[in-house]
Design goal:
mainly beta, Jelly Rolls, 37% strand
């Protein structure tokens, strides 16, 4: 049996045309803020937040630094860094399952209060389950399902706040949305 290249090409095109089209998948992660542009950071009441040279182990040259002198419950607007997206606009994170970021705690071993605000002003605030380790970069993760259950629209994430109870200095970097747990490995 002799098959011509032209005949094979025609058969391949017809076969491909008969296959159903699949939906385009979302990238492995979506960067919300990495501080490399030197913007997207503010300090909540009772704290200082600056962007400075990182010391972080990935390609980053800058990270956020949160400092404050008085211990206590950070609530939604005390002792927090206030992080906005790189372009200052609300971000659609509906294709992802987690919020992840790196944190270096120079005070001790703590959990962290995470608040997420959508464009309509709905806010979720809760403590994560991941303890930091003194003077080490630790990956903090937070399921987005928790936000939707509490009424936050993950199609329009405007702001992420990270607060601490204990006075001290904390560094944060690479706020991303992902469906691949611990996707921050891709940033290294």
């Amino acid at each position: 049996m002799k098959i011509s290249i032209k005949g094979l090409l025609v058969a391949t095109v017809l076969l491909l045309a008969a296959l159903p089209m699949t939906a385009q998948t979302a990238p492995v992660y979506l960067v919300f803020q990495n501080f490399e542009a030197g913007d997207g950071l503010a300090a909540a009441q009772g704290s200082t937040a600056v962007i400075e040279a990182s010391g972080f182990v990935d390609k980053s040259t800058k990270s956020a630094k949160l400092s404050f002198d008085t211990s206590g419950d950070p609530h939604e607007n005390l002792q927090n860094v206030v992080v906005t997206s790189s372009d200052g606009k609300a971000v659609d994170a509906s294709a992802y399952k987690y919020l992840e970021f790196w944190l270096k705690d120079t005070q001790g071993s703590n959990t962290h209060m995470v608040s997420v605000l959508d464009a309509a002003g709905h806010i979720y605030t809760g403590w994560d389950d991941v303890k930091s380790q003194k003077d080490k970069w630790v990956l903090i993760y937070f399921p987005l399902k928790t936000l939707t259950e509490k009424g936050v629209d993950v199609k329009s994430i405007k702001e992420i706040r990270v607060g601490e109870w204990n006075a001290g200095t904390y560094f944060m970097d690479d706020f991303i949305f992902t469906s691949d747990f611990k996707a921050a490995k891709y940033l290294k």
